[in-house]
Design goal:
This protein is mainly alpha-helical. It is about 80% helix and about 0% strand.
Amino acid sequence: MKYRFFWLLAGMILFILPAKAEELSHEKVLEQLDEVISQKALYRTERERTLYQLKQRLYYATTEKDKYELSNELFGLYLHYQADSASHYINKKAEYAALLNKPELYNEIIINRAEVMGVMGMYSDALTELQKIQPEQLGKKNLTYYYFTLRTCYGWLADYTVDRKAKQKYLQLTDQYRDSIMNNIDSCIDRNIVLSERFILSSHPDKAIPMLNQMLTTSLDMKQKAYVNYTLSLAYEAKNEIDMQIYYLAQTAIIDLSMPVREYASLQKLARLLYRHGDLKRAYSYLSCSMEDAVACNARLRFAEVTEFYPIIDHAYSQKEAQEKRMVVILLVCMGVLAILLIILALYLYYGLKKLSVMRKNLYISNKELQAANMNLAQTGKIKEVYIARYLDRCVSYLDKLEQYRRSLEKLAMASRIDDLFKAIRSEQFLRDERKNFYNEFDKSFLELFPNFITDFNNLLNDEGKIYPKPGEILNTELRIFALIRLGVTDTNRIAHFLGYSLATVYNYRSKIRNKAKGDKDNFEQMVMGL
């Protein structure tokens, strides 16, 4: 089972690989053909240059023989390139043949004229022209040429005759003249080409293919290469091998366009095959190229072949282009909608970021304010701690002093020193001393909390209004009033009660200092509270 599976897999691989190879070679030769078509103008220019040089030689030729041979060469170059010009040089040949007085040349001219008529689609006229010839009077070369032209004309008539009986008649005549060619021809290459055609028409393409492939390895001119490749395409058409048929038709078209000629069958036939395989772009391009060349050559047969199929491909290609345009429009609309959505999203993000920036800014300000509030709270807490501690110490100190004062009075009473007792009771020295000590303690505590208060406070005043304590003082009355304001005591009654002054005195101090402020006098006390 394992070996059977292995051989089955190997067989599948061997079957697939040639197909892939054929497809690749087929695509490669089509790309070469596309390149040749894109450079068609260069090949045409080269052909026109050759024709111009021959015409110049004809113009300066001195003998009738040279003129005849040059006219014949120009006829050969124009035959499948521009039929009207080919007819012109047939007439030139007839003119020079009359001067040469060589009647045998007239038969060649008649066959030339019939060949041009065939290219132009005038089959009946071509056959009428050929009937003027008596084959027994022809030399071997012209006899082969005569049979070849008859075979070609009858072949074209068979291709374009609808009536079955007439078609069969023309096919038989084509076969007869093919046999005549084979019996008369000397060239081994031309003989093998005709023999290969017979094998193909008799349903034996496998006999023709090796013979034709072997011919491709020999030295062939461009015309012979074109015939061999085209015949190979016919062989593969008979075998129904489309990829190989496409390959050899493309090779034939490359040779035709490189020679260059304008009357050919390969390119339009290739266009039909590619159309059936869905390659509309190439089919349309190849058929357009064929139509352009058929019109330029005045090859009615080729023009008829193209115009028969061109509308179908043109319609399909137009539909495909219209569909592609619709897809492009749809894509553009979708891209436009996406662009609008992106713009809306960008604006939304912009305003969102802007809003977020404002929020961050507000949050930053709030954090700063919160930090300031925390600092104020911390400072307030510190003030409370300091003043509570001072207050407790001061209360204990007052209690001790009151106890000492009571004992001193008790001693005076017990000693019956009534006068000294009344004197001590009436004296205010004790209260003055205690008030002085109290203010000293307040001043010390305040400057411990706000060591730069005096400097900062004076910075708010003009130079004439600056206040400094006298020697031996910590704070004077004015500084003490604004120290209380800094601590949040802004009520005049409370300040007056605290300092033991009248309301008018405290009010006057506040107004006097406010008038000495540098900046806004109305906001002076608020600035003091911010020190």
